[in-house]
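Here we describe the complex-level prediction in full. Unlike the single-chain runs in Section 2.1, the two entities below were treated as one system.
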Amino acid sequence: MSPSQRAAWFGAAGRVALWAYTAVILLFLLVPIAIIVIMSFSDQPYLTFPPPGWTLHWYAAVQDQPRWLAAALNSIRIGVPSALLAVFFGTLAALGIARSGSRWAKPMTLLVLAPMMVPHVIIAIGLFPTLVDLRLINTYSAVVIGHSVIGIPLVFVTVSAALRAYPASLDLAARTLGASPWRTFMRVTVPMTWAGIASGGLLAFAASFDELMLALFLTSARTETLPRMIWDQLSFALTPALAAVATLILALSMILLGAAAVIGSRKPTPRRALL
Amino acid sequence: MVPPIAFLGMFLLLPLIRVVIRSFAEPALTVTNYVRVFSDVAYMRAFSYTLEVALSVTALCLLIGYPLAYAIARARGVAQKLISILVLLPLWTSVVIRSYAWLILFQRKGALNDLLLSMGLVKEPIDILQTSVAVEIGMVHILLPVMVLPLVASMMAVDATLLRAGRILGARPLRLFLRVYLRITLPGISAGCVLVFISALGFFITPSLLGGAHNAMAAVVIEQAVSVFFDWPLASALSTVLLLITIGIYLAYARLTGGELQVALK
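The structure predicted for the assembly as a whole is:
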């Protein structure tokens, strides 16, 4: 082989190896998810794999237990206001930090991102007595407050990215042409960043929907969320009914992911803002 | 700017300060809680074990994630979108559910043992649950996307002409990789590593489901101090130590790279 032939051969071999490797890693990432879905249709009460037969029995079992439905409704009742609060505070923080040259920008950024870094168990241990003092413990508000703290950095990151993606001179132009700050915000800033705001909100909802540690500390039997109920069930019974619940949650997550992907792929248009 | 700062001040900063104060102030003004933390072998072991696991999970995520990120950065069009979605998919599925899936897979009579037995790789079922291996596999599965995102971002920013220039000037592939590609993607590597490491420090679900009692991570020990022993002052002291470790690692990163952490979620 000539040197150039050899280089081409190595290049092709390298590409094949890279794709094979990628396939193996994707398999590693997806296998546990696939296992859950398969188990939920298994006709065995014990967790055997692969299952000898198929059934919808476990979905019926889930439906028969009102506690699951109550927990699912709690998760939504907590996730939606948490996400809305996170959107409100996260967007304000992103705007404030991106558009001010303040020397406080750096410490404020740290504070806003801190919930991503600080272990949730520490936040929970600090929040619990605070919410007891405010007489909020065991109410929906308690866990909603906790989950919005977790959601704020997610909205902050996505909105900050959206703000960086368009020039601030557009806002300035609107102001120069006589628009009030509020009008500029509603007609220019929001249309230009709404994809970031919406995907941040979805992320915040998903984070609340999946959060366990704060839920363990801040919810009661009345306000328990799905992750908390799954957690309780795991400690005494491993039945395929859990896999059925997990599959239903997976389906919901896929819908959210799809929504986020569609929102994320849309390009912001200043035209709508200008008309 | 005022509302988010007020909200986070009230429900994040003050609670954290409260944890620190409580660790010194209960039952009376005291350092007893810290004496208990630092003189108890079990607690010291929990912290060293947490650092150990965080370190090996970070290394594994980097080793596994770097080629994967390269594949994503090199792919075009639909293939790139598809791989990205599949890599991000786990990020959207519940951590409790995924740890539960590993619990099923790793059981003595679970799928993995069936596979190993049928392939003749082992003679009898092996115990994977309650070992560090189980915990690390579960954690890598959760944290891999966190590593891959900044890596892909740094690889997308690589200027292809630099690589061509290196090749024309006669650099062999390995040298080209080490001297050019690796150096340009270094910010992605450091951001990914610090994000994974810091996240790993606070892990609770995976180690408590897949790990054993003898290798408990810090968050598990802290949660137990409250839920089993109702010992809030001790839990506060343990939390303060874990918080200081987290802050220390962040500061070391900020000092080394001279910049703030860039977090990307897409």
